[in-house]
């Protein structure tokens, strides 16, 4: 991907928002915002609005998602934004969109389940919400989902 897509994803598409972050997109999504509020933020912040709201279907700088199923939605968005589903970026937190950074293993010993700590060498931490990721497992789970989609 040449350039990180900057998106604002509406509250009907929160699951898609999390997936797009895991593929490297910069995504704001807040379930408490109405479509109109999110559109205003998106325009101020130079983001494309990703929505299922039919009233916005023809608006400029809006991407209307046709599909109901997450797999269909993901396929549409990957095509539209030129994301590469073979590259699992895992650069951003799926929950809050903050950037992840690698963290020393000993620092996460009390923050992940014991079996996870015992079986992984590499961990990443979200600088925003503090969520810990163990990339091998997260990548493997994502790979399984992405492999089930015909891009
Ligand atoms: Zn986070």
Write the layout of secondary structure elements.
Elements: E1 6-9, H1 14-22, E2 26-28, H2 35-44, E3 48-51, E4 62-64, H3 70-81, E5 100-103, H4 114-119, E6 123-126, E7 132-133, H5 135-147
Parallel strand pairs: 1-2, 1-3, 3-4
Antiparallel strand pairs: 5-6, 6-7
Helix pairs in contact: 1-3
The protein binds zinc ion.
Zinc ion (ZN) binds next to loops.
Search tags:
three-stranded antiparallel beta sheet, 2 domains, alpha/beta, binds zinc ion, 151 residues
Question: In short, what is this structure?
Answer:
The protein is of the alpha/beta class and 151 residues long.
Structural class: alpha/beta
Strand content: 15-25%
Radius of gyration: 16 Å
Q: What topology, given as strand order, has the largest sheet? A: 2-1-3-4
Q: What is the arithmetic mean of pLDDT?
A: 94
The percentage helix is: 25-40%
Number of domains: 2
Main beta sheet: 4 strands, parallel
Structural commentary:
The chain has about 150 residues and is of the alpha/beta class. It is built from 5 helices and 7 strands; from the N terminus they run E-H-E-H-E-E-H-E-H-E-E-H. It has helices spanning about 15-20, 35-45, 70-80, 115-120, 135-145; strands at about 5-10, 25-30, 50, 60-65, 100-105, 125, 130-135. The strands form 2 sheets. A 4-stranded parallel β-sheet has the order 2-1-3-4, sandwiched between helices. It has a 3-stranded antiparallel β-sheet with strand order 5-6-7, with no helix packed on it. Strand 1, helix 1 (about 15-20) and strand 2 form a beta-alpha-beta unit. The chain is globular and about 50 Å long. The model has no long low-confidence stretch (mean pLDDT about 95). Bound molecules: zinc ion. Zinc ion binds next to loops.
